[in-house]
Design brief:
Length: about 230
């Protein structure tokens, strides 16, 4: 009987030990599973962090590109504005200076020179407007003074001190079947050509090319003609 109790006790202890052993294995398996899950979570969080960093880098690069584009655009705008400002300033410098007190002020023209154009028998009078300083030319017996121009069509301006040269005769020839003589002149300073008709209302005017620009004379052509005649 005593042996039976001892055997039962041993069996009970063995069952208890086996139960404890099995319980410990389950806990270890549970802990291992927990660790694996934790490591997976950590890996996913790390991947998310790397993705966020890459996105941040892409955004920074995009912002940098946009900033460079804006800077380049601003630089181009400033350069364009600077060029326009230079053109405006240049135009202001090239414009004739206003010498009159007021644009409404009117004064009589002032005579600069009176001289007969060589070999023509025509006397040229040169005046300037004291308000605008624009030059005018008048031929004896003509129908009135005309405004003088530069080759580009702008009014010729008097500086108040320089000599203004008399026109030079290019051609004097009678017009067939008309009681009139045609005179062609050129301005030695601007090379603009003029035509004058005697006994035909004595009109005088500047000459133009087919495109509407003022016609200019090449003085070397006259010298070449003289050499050919000689």
């Amino acid at each position: 009987m005593r042996r039976k109790k001892i055997l039962v006790t041993i069996v009970a202890l063995m069952m208890l030990g086996l139960s404890c052993f099995l319980t410990g294995c389950e806990d270890e398996a549970h802990d291992s599973k927990y660790i694996e899950d934790y490591e997976e979570d950590e890996t996913e969080e790390s991947d998310d962090d790397e993705t966020e960093e890459e996105n941040d880098d892409d955004e920074k690069e995009h912002e940098t590109e946009e900033s460079e584009k804006v800077e380049n655009s601003e630089t181009e705008t400033e350069s364009s504005e600077a060029k326009e400002s230079e053109k405006t300033e240049s135009a202001k410098v090239n414009q004739p200076k206003k010498t009159g007190k007021s644009s409404r002020e009117v004064k009589p023209l002032v005579l600069i020179s009176k001289e007969e154009i060589e070999d023509s028998g025509v006397t040229q009078y040169i005046y300037y407007d004291p308000v605008t300083m624009i030059l005018f030319s008048y031929f004896s017996n003509s129908n009135g003074p005309i405004e003088m121009h530069n080759a580009d069509g702008t009014p010729r301006i008097y500086d108040g001190k320089s000599e203004v040269k008399t026109l030079v005769l290019i051609l004097e020839e009678g017009i067939e079947n008309v009681w009139s003589t045609q005179y062609n002149f050129y301005d030695p300073e601007t090379l603009v050509m003029y035509v004058y008709f005697s006994n035909c209302d004595d009109s005088v005017s500047e000459m133009h090319d087919v495109d509407g620009t003022l016609r200019t004379y090449d003085p070397t052509s006259k010298k070449e003609e003289k050499k050919e005649k000689e």
